[in-house]
Design goal:
The chain is an all-alpha fold. The protein has helices at 28-34, 36-50, 60-80, 88-115, 117-122, 129-155, 162-192, 195-209, 217-224, 228-234, 237-249, 267-292, 296-299; strands at 2-3, 15-16. The model is unreliable at 1-25 (pLDDT under 50).
Length: 301
């Protein structure tokens, strides 16, 4: 933008004015983590608002997963007959944590910018801070669930191995990066098109049935025989995160050579590729967010 100023002001007549930002201001995800104190306050606010007026408070984060877990194990497990699968509760729980993590991050992240529209209009902070805060709140709730799962694994004679630990860490890395990429993109798109809130509900329903949680991957493999349907199934990053989580928590509790414990070939190679793709998707989501946030104020009236 070019502006002509009076010469009497002692300023050159031809001055290029850029966006009005404080000196040293950094936007985007880098700007978010440069403001860690503000991010911490926002996470505390999210936690306080979520359980405001609630009798059980944060305990609901464990009551609801427990009810879902019992439903899958006691109802679906016995109806389908998978209760006979060795370690079926651990098979379900390890996958359920991954699915719950993704769906909660997606749901809260999609609404995060719209929900904080007063802060968006008044505060000069990177708007990416809101979906990032939603992700951190989900991590806060998920870590104790992972601890409970690990205790259950120890009771079930979980066998320590570096491979299992690596699978768990890779699963969590995929889950965090992919969840951040999707929630970052959806939070910006939801400002422009509120339909995305309803779209998220559909995705949440589909995710539960599109991963090997209440059924095993062996069931998929036995019907697809490695054809393109199986490859398309495995292209889902959440499927990869679930299978790696099961490799970490469920498989080490099984007797050797359990047929139902069949996992995809080249599991770790696939996981590393999925992680690289998820990181690339964060960059794509960041560019989309940056382009759309220019007109956030117009759509948040």
């Amino acid at each position: 933008m070019t502006s002509t100023l009076p010469h009497s002001a002692g300023v050159s007549a031809d001055v290029r004015l850029g966006p009005l930002r404080p000196p040293g201001d950094t936007t985007g995800l880098f700007g978010v983590f440069q403001r860690r104190y503000l991010l911490k306050l926002l996470v505390r606010k999210e936690l306080r608002v979520r359980y405001q007026g609630s009798l059980l408070g944060v305990a609901w984060s464990y009551v609801k997963p427990l009810i879902r877990f019992l439903t899958y194990v006691l109802v679906i497990g016995y109806v389908i007959g998978l209760h006979k699968l060795p370690g079926y509760p651990l098979h379900v729980f390890s996958a359920m944590i991954v699915v719950t993590f993704f769906t909660e991050t997606l749901g809260a992240g999609t609404k995060s910018v719209v929900k904080n529209k007063s802060l968006v209009r008044k505060m000069n902070v990177p708007r990416e801070m809101f979906p990032v805060a939603s992700l951190l709140v989900t991590i806060y709730h998920a870590l104790p669930q992972y601890l409970i799962l690990f205790i259950g694994c120890l009771i079930a004679d979980w066998r320590f191995s570096a491979t299992a630990i690596a699978a768990g860490l890779l699963s969590f890395a995929i889950l965090v990066t992919f969840s951040l990429a999707v929630s970052l993109a959806f939070s910006a798109l939801n400002v422009w098109f509120r339909d995305f809130q309803n779209f998220v509900e559909t995705i949440t329903h589909l995710v539960m049935w599109s991963v090997p949680m209440i059924y095993t991957f062996q069931m998929i493999a036995s019907r697809t025989h490695g054809n393109w349907i199986e490859q398309a199934y495995l292209a889902n990053p959440i499927v990869e995160a679930v299978v790696l989580a099961q490799r970490c928590f469920w498989v080490p509790t099984l007797p050797p050579d359990t047929p139902e414990a069949l996992l995809p070939a080249h599991l770790f190679e696939r996981g590393l590729i999925t992680l690289a793709v998820s990181i690339a998707l964060i960059a794509v989501a960041q560019r989309l967010f940056t382009r759309l946030e220019v007109k956030f104020a117009e759509h948040l009236l």
